[in-house]
Design brief:
10 strands
Length: 403
C-alpha cells in the first residue's frame, strides 16, 4: 500500500513544482520543453521502479485476450484515436477551420514530438499502475473515476493553477473546453489502460494530442460547440470500444472469435483512415482549400441556404464567365457567379469581374478586383451547413438573452 501512497506523493510533488514554476516567472519555453517533460519523465521512472518491485504488469493486457477493434490493444487505441479526430474534422468541415497557433517547422516538429511522447509516457505509466493496483470488482467504477481524475490533475495541474477563477467567463470556458473534455478523455484512457495496458491508452491519447499539436488547421467553431464535441467524442469512442472488445475465457471462445474475425487485418482500415485524414488536413491547410456555408438565397437554385461549398484558390487569368467565385467585400465573403469580365479595369487593374447572384435580376453594383478574389467553388455539399446555421442562431440568441 505504501507504494501507492508514494506514487500519489509523486503527483503532489509535481503539482507543488508546477506552482513554483508559475510563481517564479521561469521562461515559458524552458518550462514547456525542458522542466515539465523532465518531471513527467521522473514520474515514469518512479512508476517503472515501483511496478517492478510489486510485480505489477503495466505493459500488457491481461483482461482482454482478443480485440475485435484491431488485433491488439495498441491497434485498438490507434483506431479509436483516428475515430476521435475524425469527429473533429467533420466539425471543421461544418463550422470552418482555423490555423494552428503553433509554428510548425521540422525542428519544432521533432522537438514537439519528443516532448509530447515524454509527457504522455509519464502520465500513462502513472495511470496504468494506479488503475491496475487499486481496481477491484467491488470498487471498479469508483477506482476508475478516481484514477482518471488523478491523471487529469497530473496532466492539467499547471493550467488549473494559472486560471483566474474570479472571471466567470474564463472559468466557464476552462471548465467547458478543457476540464470536462479532459475528464471524459481520461475516463476512456483509464478504462483502456485497465483492460489493455499502458500502450493501449498511450496509443489513443498520443493520436488525439498529436493531432491538436501538429495539424496545420484545427476546427474553429464557437467554444460552446467545441466543448460539446470534445466532451462527446470520448463517450462515443468508449461505446465503440465496449462493442468491439470481448473477454475470452477459454480456448473454445478464442477459436470462435478467430472464425468470426475472419483473419482480416485492420491495417487496411488504419491506412485508409490515415490517408483520408492526411488528404483533408493538408488540402484544407497547405493548399488553401476551405469550406463555406451558404447563408443567403442570392444564388438559388444553384446554391441554397445551408449548402456547403468547397473553395479552392484560383489564378485570376483562369477565371471564366460562368465560374462561381468567393470574393471579399468589406468585412464579409460573397459567393456569386462571374457574369462578365472586363479586360481593362479601373483603379489601375488590368482586369475586373462583374458578378451576379443567380437569383438576382441585375449584376452586383461594384466590380470585383483581382485582390478581392479568394477562390473558386469546386464542390457543393447540399444541406449539411444547416447544423452550423442553426447552432450559430441558437448561440446568438443565448448570448443576446444573457446580455
Amino acid at each position: 500500500m505504501w507504494y501507492i501512497l508514494l506514487t500519489i506523493y509523486a503527483g503532489l510533488i509535481y503539482l507543488v513544482a508546477c506552482n513554483i514554476i508559475t510563481r517564479t516567472g521561469i521562461d515559458p519555453i524552458l518550462k514547456s520543453y525542458a522542466i515539465l517533460p523532465m518531471m513527467r519523465l521522473s514520474v515514469l521512472m518512479l512508476v517503472l521502479y515501483i511496478a517492478k518491485i510489486e510485480e505489477v504488469d503495466i505493459f500488457y493486457s491481461r483482461k482482454v485476450r482478443r480485440w475485435e477493434l484491431g488485433r491488439n490493444p495498441i491497434e485498438g487505441g490507434i483506431l479509436l484515436g483516428i475515430f476521435h479526430i475524425s469527429l473533429y474534422v467533420i466539425i471543421g468541415l461544418l463550422f470552418g477551420f482555423g490555423k494552428n497557433p503553433y509554428v510548425i517547422t521540422p525542428v519544432s516538429l521533432v522537438l514537439g514530438l519528443s516532448v509530447l511522447v515524454t509527457n504522455l509516457l509519464g502520465i500513462e505509466a502513472f495511470r496504468t499502475y494506479m488503475v491496475r493496483r487499486v481496481v477491484s470488482e467491488k470498487t471498479f467504477t469508483l477506482c476508475i473515476v478516481t484514477v482518471a481524475i488523478l491523471a487529469v490533475i497530473l496532466r492539467e495541474g499547471l493550467e488549473i493553477l494559472s486560471i483566474d477563477f474570479n472571471d466567470p467567463l474564463i472559468t466557464m470556458k476552462f471548465i467547458g473546453e478543457d476540464l470536462i473534455p479532459s475528464i471524459t478523455m481520461s475516463l476512456l484512457a483509464t478504462y483502456m489502460a485497465f483492460i489493455g495496458g499502458m500502450f493501449s491508452s498511450f496509443s489513443y491519447v498520443v493520436v488525439v494530442e498529436g493531432f491538436e499539436w501538429f495539424s496545420p488547421l484545427l476546427p474553429d467553431p464557437n467554444w460552446m460547440i467545441l466543448s460539446f464535441i470534445k466532451t462527446i467524442a470520448p463517450v462515443v469512442a468508449f461505446m465503440v470500444l465496449q462493442s468491439e472488445t470481448v473477454i475470452t475465457l477459454s480456448h473454445r471462445t478464442r477459436r470462435k472469435m478467430k472464425a468470426r474475425h475472419g483473419g482480416k487485418s485492420p491495417y487496411g482500415w488504419i491506412a485508409s483512415s490515415i490517408a483520408c485524414l492526411v488528404i483533408v488536413l493538408f488540402s484544407f491547410g497547405y493548399f488553401g482549400v476551405h469550406p463555406l456555408v451558404i447563408c443567403s438565397g442570392s444564388m438559388e437554385p444553384t446554391l441554397e441556404v445551408g449548402d456547403v461549398v468547397i473553395i479552392a484558390p484560383v489564378k485570376v487569368d483562369e477565371i471564366k464567365v460562368g465560374d462561381i467565385v468567393e470574393y471579399r467585400s468589406t468585412n464579409m465573403s460573397i459567393v456569386h457567379r462571374v457574369h462578365n469580365i472586363r479586360k481593362v479595369g479601373s483603379h489601375g487593374y488590368q482586369v475586373e469581374f462583374i458578378t451576379k447572384g443567380d437569383a438576382n435580376d441585375i449584376p452586383d453594383p461594384d466590380p470585383v478586383h483581382p485582390d478581392q478574389i479568394v477562390g473558386k467553388v469546386i464542390l457543393v455539399i447540399p444541406k449539411i451547413g444547416w447544423i452550423s446555421l442553426f447552432t450559430e442562431k441558437l448561440y446568438r440568441g443565448i448570448m443576446g438573452t444573457s446580455a
